[in-house]
Known about the structure:
By secondary structure, the chain is of the alpha/beta class. The chain contains 20 helices and 29 strands. Helix 2 (19-25) packs antiparallel against helix 12 and helix 7 (155-170) packs parallel to helix 8.
Amino acid sequence: MNFKKYDNEIDEMIKSMTLGEKLGQLNMTAQGGHMMGPDGKEVDMEAALKSGKVGGLQNIRGVKKLTHLQKIAVEQSRLGIPLLFAADIIHGTETIFPIPLAEACSWNLEAVKETAAIAAKEGAAMGVRLTYAPMADISRDPRWGRVMESNGEDPWYNGRITEARVKGFQSDDLSNPHSMAACIKHFAAYGAVEGGRDYNTVDMSEQRLREIYLPGYKAGIDAGAATVMVAFNDLNGIPCSCNSFLLNQILRDEWGFEGFVIGDHTSVGEMVNHGVAENIKHAGELAIKGGLDMDMVSQSLLIHGEELLNQGKINIKMIDRAVRRILRIKHALGLMKDPFLYLDKQREAQWVFRPEYRDTARKIARESIVLLKNQNQLHPLNESIKTLAVIGPFADDNLTPRGEWAFGGSHYDQVVSLLEGLENRIKGTEIRLINARGCNPMDEDTGQLSEAIEAARKADMILLALGEPLEMIGEARSRISLEIPGGQQHMVSELLKLGKPMAALIQSGRPLNLTWLDNHIPTILQCWHLGHQAGHAMADVIFGDYNPSGKLPISFPRSVGQIPVYYSDKSSGRPYKPNLRWCTHYLDSPNSPLYPFGYGLSYTTFQYSEITLSSTTLSRDMTLQASITLRNKGIYRGTEVVQCYLGDVIRSSAPPVKELKDFQRIILDPGESKEIIFNITEKSLRFLAIDLQYRSEPGRFIIHIGGNSQQTVLQSFVFKG
Ligand code: NOJ
């Protein structure tokens, strides 16, 4: 998108603005409808709007309220510049979709784009013009509570999902009344906070930063994202809120970003706590010099901008530049032409929570479920089961499936719990459901256990509804333990004594440590927090109305001690060999994760042929084709995500063993086969060399194709350079 095309009009506007009005544009504020000062005290909102002290307002719900505020800004301030209304619409709003990490399990980029587009339709109809999404932070650490908002561990796949979401939110034209501006966050490397502790420090090489952490953000910028939000953390000692290397050099100079950069909530003021700014005034100076345009909530420049100018610490060009970038986006959104385009009560009623959105929510929710284990083929359930006990704290629960960051209010009561989903599914069958809670997820109280055991005794089969409550996941909710929390494991161990067939469903926002469960329970479904249609989606999969197809975008560790564990590691000088002491390994755990990246089972079995290459050598300007035949060997129609990885054998800096390069999502009927072709060119072989230039080097490469990162068929070819 060309955001510069409004610059002439903006220049005229800037000429007519007072300093106070300019500083007002740099101010994003409001909490729950009240404007707060940096000291947390309430400020007279109407007076602030009338005097042009506010550029945008965030997280306020409802067209009525927003229209009232917009009217004051447009009709009662001197220049009448419209406000930009922003909100955290992360995985839907009135219609809630699965949390981002769950959606990433679908590997269905069209569906991911579609859910973002629906969120934009709803958000725009509610008056929101900027969503603080998508998050493109690579996360290889499930202790970090915000892993739920991520797309997992892989730079390339993270980029594809981020791009799909940006296109979904923004469409091709921001002034389209069904779109919202996207915000790529949190720039940069927020997912790498030390120890997985939120807001902690990040220290990493530029090599790793550029190769692993930056590509996701860049994919979002290349897809046209209008705004970027900085991360709370410092990167190699410099807080991201004033990090000129990130904001000026990489984002603007290298990537050509023309939109505006916003702080995170009080992140500018927090530079005082970081220990790089003496006070908020100094923080404002550092932020604007570092390339930040809009301050979220700290009001650093609003309050201190004039003094900083008078003291010669900053100059007016810096302020004008930031104002220009913000006004570009207001123009692109069509706000300058019609500030009330999105503030229409009829549109609000017409475009939210439509039945077809719920159908989409159900489809993506079931595609987000990952079958981790199905040892005795307990799933799909057959209707010979007469009594099914559904036991655990997440069965009769329609709060947890909402997931963190559900910015919706009016339809929470319609979130479908697991129990409701199953009840709807068994109507008209002979199956009887019994339900007991059994334990709590936040404490180890055993008071409900005997009732659960009694219920289980009466059943032919037990479905365990396990997981993690909302209170344990999201921002500022890091954990050092990844165990299934509270009394859940104890409850399962007591139920195991009954010797009945048991299958587990895990509704969590992060990869939990499922090692113990995997040792004891034959069938496990990772169900995440799936949004409005959670219960229906889980029932669809349990009964085989949908054959599970989800694949993990993040490795599930065997224990916290393995973190970080990811598939694209390097072989080391002493690669692992069984029974050898002097090699890279742990004394008390395998190196491999419990479930690897890309992993997920189906009710059917897919057979991969050997790889056929169109040539055993590749030269520049040539395309090498690697093909396999995929066959559905089972009795169910199924979807397989065929993944293509490449490994460089020898190069000038130690290569990862393999890296994901491409994938295809293939649907096959029982007995059906299909040839799948991946194209490999010189570009696929490039890596970031030690001089920080992308290049390819001649030599042998291994191509791996398979249904997950660990079980693949291999072939090698030589790149001639
Ligand atoms: C803090 C979070 O880090 C960010 O992701 C969010 O968009 C802002 N708060 C605004 O709510």
